[in-house]
Design brief:
Largest interface: A-B, 26 and 24 residues
Order of helices and strands of chain A: EEEEEEEEEEEE
Helix content of chain A: under 10%
Radius of gyration of chain A: 13 Å
Distance between the termini of chain A: 37 Å
Number of helices of chain B: 0
Oligomer: heterodimer
Strand content of chain A: over 45%
Number of strands of chain B: 12
Protein backbone atom coordinates (compact mmCIF):
# COMPACT_ATOMS: atom_id res chain seq x y z
CA UNK A 1 0.00 0.00 0.00
CA UNK A 2 1.02 3.57 -0.63
CA UNK A 3 2.17 5.27 2.48
CA UNK A 4 1.91 9.00 2.98
CA UNK A 5 3.69 10.26 6.07
CA UNK A 6 3.24 13.66 7.62
CA UNK A 7 6.06 14.69 9.91
CA UNK A 8 3.95 15.71 12.92
CA UNK A 9 0.50 14.76 14.25
CA UNK A 10 0.28 17.79 16.53
CA UNK A 11 2.07 21.12 16.33
CA UNK A 12 1.81 24.31 18.38
CA UNK A 13 3.38 27.48 16.99
CA UNK A 14 3.38 31.15 17.88
CA UNK A 15 1.89 33.91 15.76
CA UNK A 16 4.45 35.18 13.27
CA UNK A 17 6.58 32.04 13.24
CA UNK A 18 7.57 30.38 9.98
CA UNK A 19 6.10 26.88 9.95
CA UNK A 20 7.06 23.92 7.80
CA UNK A 21 4.74 20.94 7.35
CA UNK A 22 6.43 18.01 5.68
CA UNK A 23 4.84 15.21 3.68
CA UNK A 24 6.60 12.19 2.19
CA UNK A 25 5.13 9.46 -0.04
CA UNK A 26 6.75 6.16 -0.94
CA UNK A 27 5.09 5.20 -4.24
CA UNK A 28 6.54 7.56 -6.85
CA UNK A 29 3.18 9.26 -7.46
CA UNK A 30 3.19 12.38 -9.60
CA UNK A 31 0.42 14.33 -7.92
CA UNK A 32 0.58 15.62 -4.37
CA UNK A 33 -1.89 17.83 -2.55
CA UNK A 34 -2.18 19.94 0.59
CA UNK A 35 -5.63 20.51 2.11
CA UNK A 36 -6.87 22.10 5.26
CA UNK A 37 -9.87 20.61 7.00
CA UNK A 38 -12.19 22.74 9.14
CA UNK A 39 -15.58 21.80 10.63
CA UNK A 40 -18.39 22.56 8.22
CA UNK A 41 -16.01 23.50 5.42
CA UNK A 42 -14.75 20.09 4.42
CA UNK A 43 -11.36 19.77 2.74
CA UNK A 44 -10.19 22.89 0.97
CA UNK A 45 -7.33 22.65 -1.50
CA UNK A 46 -4.38 24.91 -0.67
CA UNK A 47 -1.85 23.86 -3.30
CA UNK A 48 -1.13 20.89 -5.47
CA UNK A 49 1.87 19.69 -7.42
CA UNK A 50 1.86 17.51 -10.51
CA UNK A 51 5.62 17.10 -10.84
CA UNK A 52 8.91 18.08 -9.24
CA UNK A 53 9.20 21.86 -8.98
CA UNK A 54 5.71 22.23 -10.49
CA UNK A 55 2.90 23.64 -8.41
CA UNK A 56 -0.49 25.19 -8.81
CA UNK A 57 -2.62 27.21 -6.47
CA UNK A 58 -5.73 25.65 -5.09
CA UNK A 59 -8.75 27.45 -3.73
CA UNK A 60 -7.14 29.02 -0.63
CA UNK A 61 -3.42 29.64 -1.26
CA UNK A 62 -3.17 32.97 0.58
CA UNK A 63 -0.67 32.86 3.42
CA UNK A 64 0.87 29.59 2.23
CA UNK A 65 3.63 28.47 -0.10
CA UNK A 66 4.89 25.04 -1.10
CA UNK A 67 8.08 23.33 -2.16
CA UNK A 68 8.62 20.16 -4.15
CA UNK A 69 12.32 19.64 -4.75
CA UNK A 70 12.05 15.84 -4.86
CA UNK A 71 9.21 13.72 -6.17
CA UNK A 72 8.53 12.06 -2.84
CA UNK A 73 8.43 15.18 -0.68
CA UNK A 74 5.91 18.02 -0.70
CA UNK A 75 6.28 20.73 1.92
CA UNK A 76 3.74 23.30 3.01
CA UNK A 77 5.13 26.57 4.38
CA UNK A 78 3.35 29.14 6.47
CA UNK A 79 5.54 32.20 6.03
CA UNK A 80 4.14 34.01 9.08
CA UNK A 81 1.66 31.91 11.02
CA UNK A 82 -1.59 33.49 12.13
CA UNK A 83 -4.32 32.25 14.45
CA UNK A 84 -6.64 31.90 11.44
CA UNK A 85 -4.35 29.14 10.20
CA UNK A 86 -5.15 26.93 13.17
CA UNK A 87 -6.53 23.85 11.46
CA UNK A 88 -6.06 20.22 10.48
CA UNK A 89 -3.73 19.91 7.48
CA UNK A 90 -3.93 16.85 5.25
CA UNK A 91 -1.45 15.77 2.60
CA UNK A 92 -2.34 13.38 -0.22
CA UNK A 93 -0.54 11.61 -3.07
CA UNK A 94 -2.14 10.39 -6.27
CA UNK A 95 -0.94 8.51 -9.33
CA UNK A 96 -2.53 8.89 -12.77
CA UNK A 97 -5.70 10.95 -12.94
CA UNK A 98 -8.75 9.08 -11.78
CA UNK A 99 -6.83 6.81 -9.45
CA UNK A 100 -7.09 6.73 -5.68
CA UNK A 101 -5.53 9.53 -3.65
CA UNK A 102 -3.80 8.32 -0.50
CA UNK A 103 -3.86 10.51 2.57
CA UNK A 104 -1.58 11.04 5.49
CA UNK A 105 -2.87 11.01 9.05
CA UNK A 106 -2.99 14.79 9.22
CA UNK A 107 -1.23 17.47 11.24
CA UNK A 108 -3.30 19.40 13.73
CA UNK A 109 -1.70 22.83 13.88
CA UNK A 110 -2.52 25.30 16.61
CA UNK A 111 -1.25 28.86 16.28
CA UNK A 112 -1.27 30.80 19.55
CA UNK B 1 -14.01 24.86 -12.64
CA UNK B 2 -15.26 21.78 -10.95
CA UNK B 3 -17.13 21.83 -7.64
CA UNK B 4 -18.99 19.48 -5.32
CA UNK B 5 -22.12 20.02 -3.25
CA UNK B 6 -23.06 17.63 -0.47
CA UNK B 7 -26.60 18.17 0.72
CA UNK B 8 -26.98 17.67 4.44
CA UNK B 9 -24.05 18.16 6.79
CA UNK B 10 -25.55 15.62 9.19
CA UNK B 11 -27.56 12.49 8.48
CA UNK B 12 -28.98 10.23 11.17
CA UNK B 13 -30.35 6.75 10.59
CA UNK B 14 -31.32 3.76 12.68
CA UNK B 15 -29.26 0.61 12.53
CA UNK B 16 -30.57 -1.50 9.65
CA UNK B 17 -32.08 1.45 7.79
CA UNK B 18 -31.14 2.67 4.34
CA UNK B 19 -28.26 5.13 4.13
CA UNK B 20 -28.45 7.83 1.44
CA UNK B 21 -25.79 10.54 1.24
CA UNK B 22 -26.22 13.07 -1.54
CA UNK B 23 -23.56 14.50 -3.82
CA UNK B 24 -23.94 16.78 -6.82
CA UNK B 25 -21.00 17.93 -8.91
CA UNK B 26 -20.19 20.55 -11.46
CA UNK B 27 -17.67 19.83 -14.17
CA UNK B 28 -17.16 21.02 -17.72
CA UNK B 29 -15.82 17.66 -18.83
CA UNK B 30 -16.68 14.06 -17.92
CA UNK B 31 -15.56 13.82 -14.33
CA UNK B 32 -13.87 11.30 -12.14
CA UNK B 33 -15.92 10.94 -8.95
CA UNK B 34 -14.95 9.58 -5.56
CA UNK B 35 -16.38 8.90 -2.12
CA UNK B 36 -14.04 8.87 0.86
CA UNK B 37 -14.74 8.04 4.50
CA UNK B 38 -13.04 9.47 7.56
CA UNK B 39 -13.30 7.76 10.93
CA UNK B 40 -12.52 9.82 14.04
CA UNK B 41 -8.86 10.79 14.35
CA UNK B 42 -7.95 9.04 11.13
CA UNK B 43 -7.08 10.03 7.59
CA UNK B 44 -9.37 9.59 4.60
CA UNK B 45 -9.98 6.20 3.06
CA UNK B 46 -11.39 5.53 -0.40
CA UNK B 47 -14.86 3.92 -0.43
CA UNK B 48 -15.40 3.81 -4.19
CA UNK B 49 -14.79 5.69 -7.41
CA UNK B 50 -16.29 6.24 -10.84
CA UNK B 51 -14.03 6.77 -13.83
CA UNK B 52 -15.68 5.31 -16.92
CA UNK B 53 -17.94 2.41 -17.79
CA UNK B 54 -20.68 1.04 -15.54
CA UNK B 55 -22.53 3.85 -13.80
CA UNK B 56 -23.35 1.79 -10.70
CA UNK B 57 -20.18 1.45 -8.68
CA UNK B 58 -19.73 -0.89 -5.75
CA UNK B 59 -17.30 -0.10 -2.98
CA UNK B 60 -16.11 -1.43 0.34
CA UNK B 61 -18.29 -2.14 3.39
CA UNK B 62 -21.45 -2.64 1.29
CA UNK B 63 -21.60 0.91 -0.08
CA UNK B 64 -22.44 1.74 -3.67
CA UNK B 65 -23.00 4.87 -5.74
CA UNK B 66 -24.63 5.63 -9.05
CA UNK B 67 -23.31 8.16 -11.55
CA UNK B 68 -26.21 10.02 -13.15
CA UNK B 69 -24.93 12.39 -15.78
CA UNK B 70 -28.34 13.95 -16.48
CA UNK B 71 -28.70 14.87 -12.81
CA UNK B 72 -24.97 15.60 -12.24
CA UNK B 73 -25.23 13.40 -9.16
CA UNK B 74 -23.22 10.66 -7.49
CA UNK B 75 -25.24 9.69 -4.42
CA UNK B 76 -23.87 7.13 -1.96
CA UNK B 77 -26.15 4.39 -0.61
CA UNK B 78 -26.05 1.39 1.65
CA UNK B 79 -29.12 -0.84 2.09
CA UNK B 80 -28.66 -1.49 5.80
CA UNK B 81 -26.71 0.77 8.16
CA UNK B 82 -24.37 -0.65 10.77
CA UNK B 83 -23.12 1.07 13.88
CA UNK B 84 -19.60 0.92 12.48
CA UNK B 85 -20.67 3.10 9.53
CA UNK B 86 -20.76 6.18 11.77
CA UNK B 87 -18.15 8.49 10.27
CA UNK B 88 -17.77 11.52 8.02
CA UNK B 89 -18.16 10.99 4.31
CA UNK B 90 -16.69 13.16 1.58
CA UNK B 91 -17.54 13.30 -2.11
CA UNK B 92 -14.80 14.47 -4.49
CA UNK B 93 -14.46 15.32 -8.17
CA UNK B 94 -11.50 15.46 -10.49
CA UNK B 95 -11.41 16.58 -14.10
CA UNK B 96 -8.72 17.25 -16.69
CA UNK B 97 -6.89 19.79 -14.53
CA UNK B 98 -5.62 17.14 -12.06
CA UNK B 99 -7.18 19.06 -9.19
CA UNK B 100 -9.06 16.90 -6.68
CA UNK B 101 -11.88 18.93 -5.14
CA UNK B 102 -13.88 17.81 -2.11
CA UNK B 103 -17.31 18.65 -0.77
CA UNK B 104 -17.99 19.91 2.73
CA UNK B 105 -18.70 16.43 4.07
CA UNK B 106 -21.65 14.64 5.65
CA UNK B 107 -21.46 13.26 9.17
CA UNK B 108 -23.41 10.01 9.46
CA UNK B 109 -24.81 9.00 12.83
CA UNK B 110 -26.26 5.52 13.33
CA UNK B 111 -28.61 4.92 16.24
CA UNK B 112 -29.29 1.46 17.75
Amino acid sequence: DVKVTQSSRYLVKRTGEKVFLECVQDMDHENMFWYRQDPGLGLRLIYFSYDVKMKEKGDIPEGYSVSREKKERFSLILESASTSQTSMYLCAAQGPQGTEAFFGQGTRLTVV
Amino acid sequence: AQSVTQLGSHVSVSEGALVLLRCNYSSSVPPYLFWYVQYPNQGLQLLLKYTTGATLVKGINGFEAEFKKSETSFHLTKPSAHMSDAAEYFCAVSDDTDKLIFGTGTRLQVFP
